Amino acid sequence: MSHAVVPGFFDAIQTSMEAEALTKDNIRAAVRDLDRTNRNITAVLNRVHSSPKEQVPALCAEARIYFSDIQTHIKDLAKMVPVNQYYKYNGLWSSPMQQACFLATLTMYLEHERLISVDELEGFFDVKVDLDNNITDFRISIEEFLHGIVSLTNELSRLAVNAVTSGDFARPVRIGKFLKELHSGFQLLNLKNDTLRKRFDGIKYDIKKVEEIIYDLTVRKLIVAITEQIQEGDNVG
């Protein structure tokens, strides 16, 4: 007698579901480790807002120590992702990866007051950035990288406020110049990701916040000489 339902049909499905659940559980465990290290780096870099500028290099050096742990977490994570199934599971780690990109970008800015390069980001994590939109193995997606850069703008607007509180009136001027250049660069991109596009639209509010700080300092005649020096440097360039 033939069966209307093939024997073992549901057993095979259950086995597949259990394997899928195990893969996700393993990935989530690795993501928790990544999250934990992100929080450690965040705790270090948050001290920049309440520390003298002379201490910033030491804080960056302390933060950099943790990036070797992030490299380990990413390697562990990459091993758990089945071959050619990156996009299927990417949602499980994309948010903490965006945060890690932000922290690397912030560290580089605090050290050199410039935007991190793709090569430098890859150096932080020992993994490639997917510039070709053709992921066959584990990569940092270009969207994750860009989200990290957008997060930097909000952090720098906060830093501009705290710099004034600590008496560093030059920093907001430099931050304002950097954010405007960054915003101009983003305007060249045709962003398809809705979330990323909405976050990009918020950059102008960060710029406005910094401009208000600079205006207030200018009215109080605290940064006239600094502004002139920056403008002269632009003219020379």
Explain this structure to me?
- Keywords: Cytoplasm, DNA-binding, Endonuclease, Hydrolase, Nuclease, Nucleus, RNA-binding.
- GO terms for molecular function: endonuclease activity; hydrolase activity; RNA binding; sequence-specific DNA binding; single-stranded DNA binding.
- Ring-shaped heterooctamer of six TSN and two TSNAX subunits, DNA/RNA binding occurs inside the ring.
- With 237 residues, the chain is mainly alpha-helical.
- 73% of the residues lie in helices and 2% in strands.
- It has ten helices and two strands, in the order αααααββααααα.
- It has a two-stranded parallel sheet with strand order 1-2.
- α1 runs parallel beside α4, α2 runs antiparallel to α4 and α6 runs parallel beside α9.
- The longest helix has 38 residues.
- The chain is elongated.
- The N and C termini lie far apart (87 Å).
- The mean pLDDT is 89.
Return the string of H and E elements. Answer: HHHHHEEHHHHH
Portion of residues within helices: over 70%
Mean pLDDT: 89
Number of helices: 10
Neighbour order of strands in the largest sheet? 1-2
Structural class: mainly alpha
Taking the alpha carbons of the first and last residues, their distance comes to 87 Å
Query: How big a fraction of the residues is strand?
Result: under 5%
**Principal-axis shape:** elongated
Task: Tell me the number of strands.
Answer: 2
- Summarize the main sheet: 2 strands, parallel
Radius of gyration: 23 Å
Contiguous runs where pLDDT drops below 50 for at least 5 residues:
none
Protein name: Translin
Subunit structure: Ring-shaped heterooctamer of six TSN and two TSNAX subunits, DNA/RNA binding occurs inside the ring.
Organism: Mortierella polycephala
Keywords: Cytoplasm, DNA-binding, Endonuclease, Hydrolase, Nuclease, Nucleus, RNA-binding
